[in-house]
User: Fold this.
Amino acid sequence: MLTPTSGKPHTSLARVLDDLGDVLLESIAGGGSTRRELSGVVIHDPLDEAQFPAQAVVLGVGVHEPDDVVRLLRDLGRNGAAVLVVRSPFTATGEVRRAADESGVALLGLAPGASWAQVAAMLRTLLVEGDIGDVSPQTLGGMPSGDLFALANAVAALLDAPVTIEDRSSRVLAFSGRQDEADQSRVETILGRQVPERFTLGLARNGVFDRLHRGHAPVYVDPLHDESMTVPRVALAVRAGDEILGSIWAAVPGPLSKERTQALIDAGKLVALHMLRLRAGADVERRLRADLVSTALEGGKGAPEAIARLGLVGQPAIVLALGLFGGSDADPSTEDGLRRVADRQRVADALAMHLSAVQARSAVALVGDVAYGIVPMPGSHADCQERSVRVASTFLERTGQRV
Assistant:
C-alpha cells in the first residue's frame, strides 16, 4: 500500500460504525475512543506473523473461542492495532471485555451471512490508506470527493428513506443508514454487496431496467412477488452524458412527492460527479503506482524516494512477477488486443488483493505486460523463500492456468 501523502484525514471507528453498523457490524466490547483513526484492513492468519500498519482493522477469520479472542486482543494491542472483527453471534465474557479495554482494541462482530471478503471490500472503500496526492478538489457539491457513503446518507436524509448506490451490474458501492427500515431483500443485498439474481431477473422481466435506462426520471417499482421484498423502491439512473454509471435505489413507503423527486434528480447529478471522480482517481493512482514500482525496481537515483513513497523503507522484501500466457504482441487497437489488456489489468488487480491480505503494505502495479508485486517479507532468507513460493503457488491455484 502507498502511504498517504495528501494529509487527508483517515476514517474513524465512529464513521465505520455509523456507515456499516446497521447491517454488517456490531460493537461487542470497548477499546478506547470511537474517534480513533483507522488505517488499513488485515486478515489474521494464526499460522503466519503478518505485519500490519498501526491503527489497522484486523479480521479475525475463524477466531471464536473467548480465550483465543482474549489472546489476540492483547497481541494486537501490543502491535498497535485498533479493531478486531470476529463472527457474530459472539458473547463477550468479562475477561474479553477487560482485554479489549486494557489493549485499547475495539471488538466488533460481523453479521451472520456476510462474507469476510465483502466486509474487507466495504472497509477498504471507507478507509483512505491508499491516497496518493491531490488529483482533484477535496469536495464536490459540499461532500468529500469520492465519498459515496457520505453521499448515500445525504440522499437518504433528503428522501427520508434508506438508500443504496449501485454500479451498472447491480453491485452495491455504498449504502446509507436506516437499512433496518427497508425489508429483508435490502438486508440480503447489502450482506452480499450485490442485488440477488432473482430480484434482478424480476426487475428485468417487469421492464424496470428498460425504463430506468431509457428515461431521465425516477422509476417507481412495486414490490416483486417475493416475500422478502415488501417495501416499494424508487430508482434513478446515474448518468454522465449518454453513459450509465450506475443507479440510486431508495426503499420508500410510496411514490415520492414532486419536491423529493426533484431532490433525487439533483442528487443523481452529484452522484455522477463523485463516481467519475472515483474512476478518474483510480486511473491516476494506477499510473502513479506503476511509476513508483517501476522506478523502485530499476534501482536508479530515484529508487530510494519511490521506495519511501511505497512505504517500504527499511524492510526486507521480495518481488513477484506475473503475466498472461500468449498474446503479448497482440495489437491493442483490435478487439483481441483490448481483451488482453483488460485481462492483464484484472489479473494485476487480483494479485494486488491477494498480496494485500498477506502483507498490507504490498505494492502491486502493471508495468508493460507484467504485474510486479513488491512484498515486505521479514524473517530469515530460508523462511522468506519458502513463504514466497507459498504465496505465489496459492495465487496460481486460485486463478487457474491462464497466468
